[in-house]
Amino acid sequence: MDIQTVAWWKAIVESMNDGVLVIDRAGIVRTINPEYTNITGVTPDIIGKPLVAYRPGAQLPKTLIDGESRVGVYRKARGREYVVDMAPIIVDGEIIGAVSVCKSLNEVHTLTQELAKQQETVAELKKQMRSIYKVKYTFEDIISQDSKMRDLISIAKKTALTNLPILITGESGTGKELFAQSIHHTSLRTNEPFIAVNCSAIPVTSIENELFGYAEGAFVGALQGGKSGLFEMADGGTLFLDEIGDLSMDVQAKILRVLQEGSIRRIGEVVERKINVRIVAATHRDLRQMIAKDLFRSELFYRLNVVSIQIPSLRERKLDIPLIINSVTPQSYTVDEEVMNFLTSYDWPGNVRELRNVIDFAVCMTEEKRISIQHLPDFMRKHHTLYADETRIIPLHEAVDEAEKKILQHALQYVGATVQERLKLANELGISLATLYNKMKKYQLN
Ligand SMILES: Nc1ncnc2c1ncn2[C@@H]1O[C@H](COP(=O)(O)OP(=O)(O)O)[C@@H](O)[C@H]1O
Ligand SMILES: [Mg+2]
User: Fold this and answer.
1) Which residues form the PAS domain (predicted)?
2) Residue closest by Cα to atom 24 of ligand 1
3) Residue 193 near ligand 1, beta carbon < 6 Å
4) 136-176 per-position pLDDT tens digit
């Protein structure tokens, strides 16, 4: 080899990322590269000396004898760990030396340790996330002796164990979320997240971002690294789509697609992400009626309505009223019979939620652990004088207002918030749209 070729090979060996040590046939070290020093701590003054003198345990000289390669030999010396590959150098069928190539394990070690730490953090976060998204209620919390309700509970308990979609309908405050949580709690997904989305509370402009997530740079103001959506967060668990009747036809179509494909695509991304989510949906609206008016997609309805739980209003199961009153009132309290009778005959447009609130209020107002009419909220006391005390005469305009408010309150539950729907309602009530809005303002109805 001429000088230039030698320099060329030397430069290659010097620049290698792995440590290299070469011995000749006599076992004398002929060269090491800088990386070998980095990895093993052995300095270049070893060159020209017998390897065994420096490194008594060295296996490389064995290679000179048996001509065998050795791969992945683990070594630990001076606090350093590395793996070594060894091979004979054969020219014209004769062993003229041997080469040892080593890779440091310290870096791998650091990375392994780092990874273990990260995995611990992830596991801890997952645990915390589970506790955040844990449900509060179970079927035990549903108070009812009504036979229709008992049937619904038994259907819900049975279907909870499947992955079937469930649609829960019923007026506001009838316990739709209570059912949804209980279903998740009883299901096999109980240790996975329960994510509740109130479709009517998320602004239309961000609902898709919230549901499906987005890629980095998907729009101005998008988070760095993008964001996972609620569907992804619920992966493995249950997604509760509350007030699903309030979604636009557009978003309905996108949800339908997710349910059909079993995967989501973050906004601004092309990759499909598989998801495993159980859907429970709820609404106080009449979806069939909405379908007839082209406000709800029938395909989505049929996909969700596999199991149908239609919760009756509280006024349709009056016997539950005393039951709930007794369970909400602290043990040592008594409730006047007059109160019991009045509350049982009341209409409860806000259902169980309203009843609970009224009792909580009365418990707070009474000072001698006895609840009488006077401890009820103002509007209920008024209502009581109007309807319960037949001997009492009140100004006619108050009675008219009260009746008007009740009718409007009831009617507004069944129509949407769009101008068209309200105009239709105004027509049905025989008043102008402006009058309807004025009255809604007067009675603080929305
Ligand atoms: N059958 C019931 N027994 C006990 N509490 C109930 C019952 N139904 C509803 N509630 C309570 O009433 C409130 C409203 O229930 P929620 O499930 O949020 O109703 P919805 O989602 O239908 O508006 C909650 O505090 C809930 O615990
Ligand atoms: Mg609700």
Assistant:
1) 5-45
2) 353
3) no
4) 899 999 999 999 999 999 999 999 999 999 999 999 999 99
- 350 alpha carbon, closest ligand: 1
Mean pLDDT of 288-313: 96
Q: Across 182-196, 205-219, 408-422, which has the greatest mean pLDDT?
A: 182-196
Domain 393-446 in CATH 1.10.10: yes
Residue 388: what pLDDT?
63
End-to-end CA distance of the chain: 95
Domain 313-378 has CATH 3.90.190.20: no
Percent of the chain exceeding pLDDT 90 equals: 64
**What architecture (CATH level 2) is domain 3-107?**
2-Layer Sandwich (3.30)
Q: Which two tokens stand for residue 395?
A: 């100004």
pLDDT digits (tens, 9 = 90+) for 42-95: 999 999 999 988 888 888 999 999 999 999 888 888 788 888 999 999 999 899
The b/e string for 67-90 (b: 16+ C-beta within 10 A; e otherwise) is eeebeeeebeeeebebbbebbbbe
Q: Is 284 in the pocket of ligand 1 (CB under 6 A)?
A: no
CATH 3.40.50.300 fits 133-310, yes or no: yes
Determine the Cα–Cα distance for residues 157 and 153; give it in Å rounded to an integer: 6
Q: pLDDT at residue 432 above 80?
A: yes
Residue-level pLDDT at 160: 97
- Domain ranges in the chain are 3-107, 133-310, 313-378, 393-446
Sign of the dihedral through C-alpha 61, 66, 68, 70: negative
181 pocket-lining for ligand 1 (C-beta < 6 Å): no
- Does the beta carbon of 283 sit less than 6 angstroms from any atom of ligand 1? no
Long-range contacts formed by 293-299: CB under 8 A, 24+ apart: 294/249, 295/249, 295/416, 296/245, 296/249, 296/252, 297/249, 297/252, 297/253, 297/256, 299/256
